[in-house]
Amino acid sequence: MRAPTPAQDENLSRIHTTVKEEIDHLMKCTLGATCPFGKCAQNRRALLHYLQCGARGCVVCDKVNTEKNKAIAKLRKAATAKEAAAS
Ligand SMILES: [Zn+2]
Ligand SMILES: [Zn+2]
């Protein structure tokens, strides 16, 4: 048995950074199907659904991968706070 290596931690934080950037993009993106990020519109819909749904065992939410769910859960409050501040 080995303890988690720094490399694994780095990799994990890199995933989170990527997911955060992706979510940031999804929140701002208005290009929809023409976005160069291929699945942007699809991911945006899944994200918007996830932000509003929160139902356990939901098939749509289940499609969002676990790492993304974790990152979104963290960002969820921040996004809500941002919206509350903007309105
Ligand atoms: Zn986009
Ligand atoms: Zn759902």
Please describe what this structure looks like.
It is a single chain. This protein is 71% helix and 0% strand. With 87 residues, it is mainly alpha-helical. It has one domain (16-86). The radius of gyration is 15 Å and the shape is globular. The model has no long low-confidence stretch (mean pLDDT 73). Bound molecules: zinc ion (ZN) (2 copies). One zinc ion binds at residues 49, 53, 55, 58, 60-61. One zinc ion (ZN) binds at residues 25, 29, 31, 35, 37, 40.
Question: Main attributes?
Answer:
0% strand; binds zinc ion; 87 residues; mainly alpha
Q: Which helices and strands occur, and which strands form pairs?
A:
Blueprint: H1 6-28, H2 40-52, H3 59-63, H4 66-86
Helix pairs in contact: 1-4
The structure holds zinc ion (ZN) (2 copies).
Q: Give the SSE string.
A: HHHH
Shape: globular
Radius of gyration: 15 Å
Our count of domains comes out at 1
**Low-confidence runs:** none
Please give the share of residues in helix.
over 70%
Count of separate DSSP helical elements: 4
Q: Find the structural class using helix and strand composition.
A: mainly alpha
- Rounded to the nearest angstrom, the distance between the terminal CA atoms is 52 Å
Number of strands: 0
% residues in beta strands = under 5%
Characterize the main sheet.
none
